[in-house]
């Protein structure tokens, strides 16, 4: 998958933000297993708004991924294959993505009501005490994302801005 | 002899009225994007050259439609609740404190409106307060017997990319422009472009920051009434959009929908400039009591 490719995701995603990442790092430091097996999985950086009665999930757009950069290489080393968020990743994360063959996708930040329509199931699987920051297991259908960083070191944010600069 | 002293007119507003008004504004501002923003999206959709950029703006238009129709938040980050109150000097508030009334409104609005609670009670200990309180409240005393309440929820993604700098007066307009372009360019995709750039120039450090936030309250597409500032706004907008960052930072013409500048007198030694970036979820609603 190369940068700029638009993809519709179908299947399972796990949610996690800063607080859940911090807790997972504490477990890894203590040599304990993670609450969910992330091998071959995709993490969606999101803290949804509360679901109204009858809704699967509240509004659920991506949060800024850079806040997770410090934790990401360790999860990639353990088999995480993809991440969905918004905004730039650090050089270390981009390098780790090449090394461990993982992809970073962006969803449209702020298109949260629209994106929530593609989420068909949502169950809290770890850290319920974190509220919107708990780890949820989502099942998505035709969830629209675009490849920002591929396994070849490309960065769509750099390329995209270069194409239109000065126009 | 009869006294002809005039009875002063005092209007009474109860804290309950204020709480109810704030609760409603919290919900409405999060569900309904203003007509100024929708119009700006339409224009960007028509003129954006990047096909991906166009598609993103289309998604934002449908997102706003879904949010309004289903009364759900435009964005899951329903923000820090920033509240501006213009309080007429002849208004008497009864039943409690204004600040408590505002916080009660936020509590109600966020709880009953299924809005996300995003506030931690201590910046270092970081435990969620559970009801999105406290608000950030700015009160200005004005003439008259009315109370205007503006609720402007502010998301973390765009607030985090904002900045203040104390320039040297010698740096002048060129320095101001350079700082704004630097801030927008470092922000890149993070504040969910297309953005609205609020700028405050002058005053002290905190005054410039407040002006920048107030600049975001002006309807998008309305230039400053000061002609020299209006042309500065146009010039900066052109330069910002020349960066090529585009919708969501994926490249394109529409990095920003507008640049809005407010000014204030400055100290002979200072040229403060604040840049407050708003994401496309540029939300605010107001009511007059
Ligand atoms: S920056 Fe704005 S649109 Fe983007 S996630 Fe935050 S609140 Fe939502």
Provide structural commentary.
The complex is a heterodimer of chains A (167) and B (289). Chain A is α/β, with parallel strands linked by helices and 167 residues long. In chain A, 25% of the residues lie in helices and 26% in strands. Chain A contains five helices and six strands; from the N terminus they run βαβαβαβαββα. In chain A, strands 1-2-3-4-6 form a five-stranded mixed β-barrel. In chain A, α2 links the parallel β2 and β3. Chain A starts with 5 loop residues before the first strand and ends with a helix. In chain A, 48% of the residues are buried. In chain B, α1 crosses α4 and α2 runs antiparallel to α3. The model of chain B has no long low-confidence stretch (mean pLDDT 96). At the A-B interface, α4 and α5 of A face α3 of B. The structure holds iron/sulfur cluster (SF4).
Poorly predicted ranges of chain A (pLDDT <50, ≥5 residues)?
none
Widest sheet of chain B: strand order?
A: 4-2-5-10
Instruction: Work out the helix count of chain B.
Output: 8
Low-confidence stretches of chain B: none
Number of helices of chain A: 5
Secondary structure: elements and pairs:
The complex is a heterodimer of chains A (167) and B (289).
Chain A: E1 6-15, H1 18-29, E2 42-44, H2 72-77, E3 82-85, H3 91-100, E4 103-106, H4 112-116, E5 119-126, E6 135-149, H5 156-164
Parallel strand pairs in A: 1-2, 2-3, 3-4
Antiparallel strand pairs in A: 1-6, 4-6, 5-6
Chain B: E1 11-14, H1 15-31, H2 35-47, H3 51-70, E2 80-88, E3 91-94, H4 98-112, E4 136-142, E5 147-154, H5 156-159, E6 163-167, H6 172-187, E7 195-203, H7 205-215, H8 227-241, E8 256-266, E9 271-278, E10 285-288
Parallel strand pairs in B: 1-3, 2-4, 7-8
Antiparallel strand pairs in B: 2-5, 5-10, 6-9, 7-9
The complex binds iron/sulfur cluster (SF4).
